[in-house]
Amino acid sequence: MMKLRSRKTIGGLALAVASLTALAACSSSGSGSASPTSTAGAVTQPGSIGAIPAAGTPSGKAGSITYGYQSSNAPNWIFPITTAAANSVYNSFVFDWQMWRPLYYYPQGTTITVDQQLSPVAPPVWSNGDKTMSITLKGWKWSNGQTISSKDLLFTMDEIAAAVKASPANWASYVPGFFPSTITSMSTPNAKTLVVNMKSAVNPTWMEQDILSAIMIMPAAEWAKDSASGPTLDFTNPANALKIFNYLTAQAKSVNTYATNPLWQTVYGPYKLTSFNATTGAFSFAPNPAYSGPHANPMSKFVGVPFTSNAAQFNAIKSGSVDVAAVPPEDNPQIPTLKGAGYNYFGIPAFGDYFVSYNFMNKTGNFDKIVAQLYFRQAMQHLEDQEGQIKAYFNGDGVPGYTTVAQYPPTPFYPSNAKTNPYAFSVSTAVSVLKAHGWNVVPNGTDTCAHAGTGPGECGAGIPAGTKLAFNLIYNTTPPIPQEVTNLASNAKQAGIQITLSGSNFNYMIQNYNDAASPANANKWAAEDFGGEGFTPYPTAFGFLNTNGSGQIGNYSNPTADSLINSSITSPNPQAVTNELAFFATNLPVLWQPLRDHTYAWKTNVSSTQPEAFENLTQYTVTPEFWYLTK
Amino acid sequence: MTAYLLRRLGTSIIVLIGISIFIFLLLHAIFPSPARVVLGLRTNNAAIAAWNKQNGFDDPVIVQYLRYMNNLLHGNFGYSYAENQTVASLFAERLARSIYLSGISLLIAILIALPLGIFQAVKRNTLGDNIATSIAFILYSMPVFFLGLILIQVFALSFPIFNFEASQSTNVFVVIGDWHSMFLPVLTLVLLTVANFSRYMRSSSIDVLAQDYIKVARAKGLPERLVLSRHMVRNASLPMITLIGLFLPALLAGNLIVETLFNYQGLGLLFYNSLGKEDYPVMLAYTLLGAVFVLLGNLVADIALTVADPRIRLA
Question: Quick check: A319 and B170 CB within 8 A?
Answer without folding.
Answer: no
